[in-house]
Design goal:
Blueprint (H helix, E strand, L loop, with lengths): L6 E5 L3 H12 L3 E6 L6 H8 L6 E4 L4 H4 L4 E4 L8 H8 L4 E3 H8 L3 E6 L4 H13 L5 E5 L5 H4 L8 E5 L2 H4 L9 E4 L7 H4 L2 H9 L10 E5 L3 H6 L6 E6 L7 E5 L2 E5 L3 E6 L8 H16 L4 H10 L8 E6 L2 E5 L6 H9 L5 E5 L9 H5 L5 E6 L4 H10 L5 E3 L3 H11 L5 E4 L12 H13 L2
Helix pairs in contact: 6-12, 12-13
């Protein structure tokens, strides 16, 4: 679609909405920036769009008169696609795109795209580093914090976009087709948005829906859902496994990461990596498989993965004080991610859990403590729900805190030399913090003030 002189509504005024609005104005569209929150400041939004913006800004209710003038709607990922106003526009025949579809339409070069419930950010960051060591023009975009739309117009024919894709972003793609895709794992998450597990799986699976035999899809053989997805994908499938040898793909064998296609190649031993835990070895294998499928020389891959120190807020070592090691895993925003955090610990652990309720169940997370957690400090809206789950599975070593600061204080009091204090909440941060980054930064600030 040629956007010149088209009237396009950008739904949502967050970082993705602003990025989409700027791109659309640059390609000649007439932009309406819309947000349902009436309390937002129009002047602040105009300033974010830029001094020369001609965008119309509408807050609160969207009238049918405005809807009738639209050629396209571009959804921000944080806006549910089943809102009555969105369904009405769909019924009116207005095309509904996501910001990923918009960016893909204008971006050039190849796309390497990653999704999954957990491990996306680490895998995306690592693959981004591998690509930067291989190609001249590389953009790391998407759910990792850099809007795809903000980078699209800078891309060249020889560019590579390494894109972290959330289920919210994948709900609204049409033509988006990565050269190499990956689905790392799928466990229950965001069911308050997707409503059913089937809808959540469908959104993740759609990352590969436009791929062909010329493309590659990297999947986790040990995840029942992704293994099944591999049976239906049109792309060339490459599996990774942390549990068994594969005839073709990449796997972990006695601490060695082996890549096998026509021949068996030793990538490295896990002791050469700076990342901890089996889940991180899986992330490394996924990034290696994607890079190799794209044609990256193994010596570049090998060097990069050995140098990579991980991402902020994901089992991030903060400091050791009085014999106690402090780890920030604020990105553990659901039970499955938080299980990975616990599994990576090699000391008795005092754990901070709780936050915003995403309709998750917590019994499996608590059962995964496996004798490592000496005290669970609960905070936030889910603390009572988690406490009830703990009681049901026979874990009674928990206390409540009324604030995040109090939770950290209780951990410091309980921890002894040789212990670890871990922030890995199994819940989103909303209600107490703007995002998981702010929560992790607060934890680090409190720990570094000791």
């Amino acid at each position: 679609m040629d956007m010149k002189n088209k009237k396009v509504l950008v739904f949502g005024s967050g970082i993705s909405g602003i990025g989409a609005g700027k791109l659309l104005e640059q390609v000649g569209a007439s932009v309406v920036l819309y947000d349902g929150k009436e309390t937002l400041d129009k002047e602040v939004l105009k300033a974010q769009l830029g001094d020369d913006t001609k965008a119309e800004i509408i807050l609160g209710e969207l009238s049918e008169e405005v809807m009738e003038t639209l050629d396209l709607v571009v959804m921000s990922p944080g806006v549910p696609t089943d809102l009555p106003v969105v369904l009405k526009m769909r019924d009116m025949g207005i095309p509904i795109w996501g910001e990923v579809e918009l960016a893909y339409t204008y971006g050039k070069g190849d796309v390497l795209a990653i999704t999954g419930t957990n491990g996306k950010t680490t895998t995306t960051a690592l693959l981004g580093e591998i690509m930067k060591n291989y190609k001249e023009s590389v953009f790391v975009v998407g759910n990792i914090g850099n809007p795809y739309t903000a980078a699209a117009l800078e891309m060249r024919e020889d560019s590579v976009a390494v894109a972290e894709m959330s289920s919210f972003q994948l709900e609204t793609i049409h033509e988006f087709r990565p050269k190499v895709s990956a689905i790392l794992n799928i466990t229950p998450d965001h069911l308050n948005r997707h409503h059913t597990m089937e809808a959540y799986i469908k959104a993740k699976e759609d990352i590969a829906k436009n791929q062909t035999k010329e493309d590659t899809c990297v999947l986790n053989y040990e995840d029942e859902v992704t293994r099944k997805i591999g049976e239906n994908v049109k792309a060339n499938v490459l599996y990774f496994s942390s549990q068994r040898k594969l005839d073709r793909g990449i796997y972990l064998d006695d601490g060695n990461i082996i890549f096998r296609q026509d021949e068996e190649i030793l990538v490295c031993n896990v002791n050469e990596l700076k990342l901890l835990g089996t889940h991180n070895y899986e992330n490394v294998m996924a990034a290696v498989a994607m890079a190799a499928a794209y044609g990256t020389p193994m010596e570049i891959i090998r060097r990069t993965i050995k140098e990579f120190a991980g991402v902020e807020h994901r089992i991030e070592f903060v400091r050791e004080k009085d014999g106690v090691a402090y780890y920030n895993d604020s990105k553990g925003t659901n039970p499955d991610a938080a299980i990975k955090g616990i599994q990576a610990m090699n000391r008795p652990t005092v754990l901070i859990g709780g936050g915003y309720d995403k309709d998750s169940e917590y019994e499996e997370w608590i059962q995964a403590f496996d004798g490592k957690v000496k005290l669970l400090v609960l905070v936030g809206a889910t603390k009572e729900k988690i406490a009830e789950a703990a009681e049901r599975v026979g874990f009674v070593s928990y206390v409540m805190a009324d604030s995040f600061e109090e939770a950290v204080e209780k951990c410091i009091e309980a921890a002894e030399p040789g212990d670890a204090v871990l922030l890995s909440p199994a819940c989103a941060s909303w209600g107490m913090f703007k995002n998981y980054e702010e929560r992790g930064d607060k934890f680090k600030e409190l720990v570094n003030c000791l």
